[in-house]
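Progress against Task 2.4 (sequence-to-structure conversion) is shown through the following example record, which the project officer requested during the mid-term review.
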Amino acid sequence: MQHGPYARIAILRPHDGDTVDFEAGYIRHLEWHRQAKDPWTWYGWTIWAGERQRCLVYATFGHTAADLDNPVQPAEDERDNILNVIRHGHFAGHALYEFLPGLSKGTGVPTPAARVEFMTVDLVSGAENAFETALRATQSGLHDETLWYRMIAGGTAPRYVRMRPRASLSALLQDADDFPGGDVRERIARTTIEILNLRPAMSYGLEVRA
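Structure tokens generated for the chain above:
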């Protein structure tokens, strides 16, 4: 059962002109996970809106540190990944995150909704405490699932990610933006907002509701 605060979020970019074979290879790789009886759940999204359009975002959530020390058959997993996936694409990022329940509304394991707003926030150095304090002050006003994660390793720091799963694009667009303003925005070096489409066939272990 998933019960910890840690998440792995990675991005794979298909080689130019190789998207069909990339997706077919990734689906074959998920079959390896099924055959290996992997107990982890893996989400698969493609980026629909953003500079990384058509990239695959794959992620697993809700892990303890001990879980992360014990992935299923890592050597065989890597071998199958190289055989089926890496020949058709390459990694564009892979990071470890910690869920921040005091800033969020939700469990830290996203609802497998059709759409997700995926926001990446890079702060200026030393701004973490002020940023988290501002978000904590708005937490009680969150009405819908809003999940904040702090990057532990895997990129430029300090970095945070916000995920807002929704049933449709219109639901995302109709949501009021609860991002804090004022001095907090002056502490942000860069913000990137992407919209992801859930790919059930490129996910593993998800119970997707119709």
